[in-house]
Amino acid sequence: MNWDTFFVPYQQTVKELKIKLRGLRAQYEMDGEDSPIEFVTGRVKSKASIEEKIIRRHLKEERLALDLQDIAGLRIMTKYVEDIYQVVDILRQRTDFKILEERDYVTNAKPSGYRSYHIVIEYPVQMYNGEKTILAEIQVRTMAMNFWATVEHDLRYKHGEELSDDIAQRLTGLSEMTFALDQELSEIRSLE
Length: 192
What we know:
Helices cover 52% and strands 23% of the residues. It has helices at residues 3-30, 47-57, 64-67, 81-93, 143-158, 165-191, and strands at 39-44, 72-78, 98-104, 117-127, 130-142. The longest helix is centred in the N-terminal third of the chain and has 28 residues, at 3-30.
C-alpha cells in the first residue's frame, strides 16, 4: 500500500473540517454570543497506529477505509457539559457531511470512566480526480473530560494497555470526580 497516497484525502478532510468548525466559533464571537465551542483539534491516525489495529483487529488493508472510522479524527472541546449537546445539535443540522452513527459516552460513560460524545460522519472530499467519501470521527467533550482522557490514554499506553486493578479503579474514580467538577461548573453557570 502507498501510505502517502492513502493519507491525502484524510489529511484534507481534517484540514477542511477544522477550518469549518473553528469558523462556527468565530461566527458566535462576531455576533457577540458565547460560543459552545471552546476549541477544535484534529489529527490523522499514524501509520504505526493503523498497522497496530490491523494486527489486533485482524483487518484487511483493502477494507481500512470502511473498517476504521477514526483515521480522520476531530475533537471539539467545550467548557460545559450542556454545550456538548448544543454542538451535537449544530452538527446534526449541517449539510456538508452525513452523520452515520452517534455514541453518547457522556451520559453513558464507559466502564473505564471515559466520557465523550462520538459522531461518525461521511465527508465528501474533493480530489483532483473526483469526489472521495471519507469516514471521520468527531468527538465532543468538555475540557475536563479531555484532560482525563489524555492522561488515561498516556498511562494505558505506557503500561501496554494492561493497567493494574488498583490503577484502573483510581482512574475511574478520578473520572467521576472530573464529571462532578463539570456538573458543579454547569450549576455555577446556571446561577449567573
